Structure formats: C-alpha cells, structure tokens
Amino acid sequence: MKRIGPELKMPKLKGSDAKVPAVLADLYYDLRDRRLLPLIALILVAIVAAPILLKDDPTEVVPQPPVTGSVGAEQASEQTLTVVKAAPGLRNYKKRLARREPTNPFKQRFTDPVLAGSELNEQTTTSTESGSSEGGSTVTTTPSTSGGGPSGGQDADGNGVPDGASLITYVVDLEITKIRTKPDGSTEKTGPKLHKGVKAPAALPGEKTPVVTYLGLGAKEPRRPLFLVSPEVTEIFGEGECISGTSSCQLMTLQKGFPVTFVYGENDVRYKINLIDITGVPVNPPQ
Questions:
Q1: Sign of CA pseudo-dihedral 188, 272, 136, 230
Q2: 166 versus 160: which is more confidently predicted?
Q3: CA nearest 279: which of 199, 167, 219?
Q4: Where are the beta strands (DSSP E) in 52-146?
C-alpha cells in the first residue's frame, strides 16, 4: 500500500534532554541520603488507604421487641406525677415564740451612759491646758467645785475666760543687728540691740520697718515662735524653718541660738535676728 505524505518517526532523545529536572533530582538524593524514602512511601500508602479504611460500614438496625401491656403500665406509672393539695395555715405562736421570754413593755430596759460631772452638785476636779497658735497664750484652769461654787467652769463676767482660770502668754527675747551698705561701699553695723519681753503680735524691729511680725508660739510640737515675714524681704539666710510659702517664705519659725538674716527693702538692708529666750508670763484677762 502506498503511503501518503511524509513518514512520521519518533524523535530520538538526546542524553541532555532525557535528564530529570535538577530540583527533583536534588530532592530525591536529599531524601535518600537522609533515609526518608521509606517514610515518604509509607505516607503515600496511608493517604491512599485512609479513605478505604475509614469508610463506614452500614450498621444493622436491631428491631426492639414490642412492649407488653404490663411493662407499659409500669413505665407509665413511673412517669406519672402526683399532685398533692396544699393546706397552708398559721403556725402556732407558742412554738414560734417558745425560746423567748415575755417582757414588760412598760419597763425601761435601756439606759443612757452616765457621764462624770453630769449630776448636780457633783464634786469634780479639773485641770486643763490649751494653747493658741496665734497669740501664744495658754489658759490654765485650777481645781474647782462645779455646780455649787461661783468658779465651776463658768464665765460669770463674760470676758471669755472661765472663772478661776489664769491666762498665760509667751514673750520672747531677741537680739537684732542692722547691717547697711553705704553708697561708697563701706558697711555700717548697728547693734546687736536687745528686744526683751516681746509680746505677740509685735512688728520687729519696729512699726516703721516691719521685717517680721512675732505671732506667738505654734501649736505643733515642739512649740516654737512663729514669725510672719514681710513681702518686702527679698532673701533669707540662716537656720530658720519655713512653714508657709512657695516662691518666697511667708511664715517661719526660729530656734534659740540660731540667728537668721533677712534682706529687707530696696536698699537691701540686712537684719540679723537671734532668738535668746522664750518665757511664759501671766496676763490679766480682757475686761
């Protein structure tokens, strides 16, 4: 038979064309060197066999025997609820109150606490002491009989001090030294000048130059004299304790033997104040 057209032949593969891709070859040699080829084969077999092994077999439904009349009646009786009629009633009060004892509602059972000194003509002895942070005064009450006597903690004359009490105020002794710089640069020193028995309130060193104002003893322990600092004071040097003030000290305390220097006014005059002593002296109450 005569062939029509050119004869078709299979192409011959050269040695370079028949090679496996480099990636697959490297993977194969890598798995072989690591001895993982059996594991890969086992995984492939498991992937193929898993759907076949996990396929559910049809289970046969076992028919249950018919329920007889006696068994059905027993099951029905077990599922039946019994409803009992409730008959609520009042509880016997004798049982409810059996543990309690009867009491007389007209008898007083609760009393107020008895305070000492609340009875009339009661003999009491008091001795109190109170301090004032502004004036440094202390009121001392002497023992007295309350209620019957004229000095029973009352204020008969209306002067603000209990009858039979003595008023004590604290005075301070100070040394003040004034140091002024002259225009030629020399220094002029005045003092120290002793200010003895200064009572609160008092401007120091005087009314014309109120560098500080003595206010009396403070209430905080240890009680120390309080001084109100003038707003014209520009600088403070020494061991004083500032009680109030942020940018500049407004209220401070002084200690005995620790002088404090205050720079006052436009001319920067320095006043060195040294606290010498604090003494409590009795004073007459205000009339």
A1: positive
A2: 166
A3: 199
A4: 129-131, 137-141
Which amino acid is present at 260?
A: V
In a domain, residue 160? The reply is no
287 found inside a domain: no
CA distance 103 to 217: 60
Extract the tokens encoding 2.
Answer: 């005569």
- Which single residue is written with the structure tokens 């309130």? 201
With cut-offs at 50, 70 and 90, classify the pLDDT of residue 113: low
Residues 6+ apart with CB under 8 A from 282: 166, 167, 168, 169
Mean pLDDT of 216-244: 87
Whether the ω angle into residue 192 lies within 30 degrees of 0, i.e. cis, is yes
Rounded to whole angstroms, how far apart are CA atoms 231 and 179?
A: 19
pLDDT tens digits, one per residue of 148-158: 444 445 666 66
Structural domain harbouring 245: 171-278
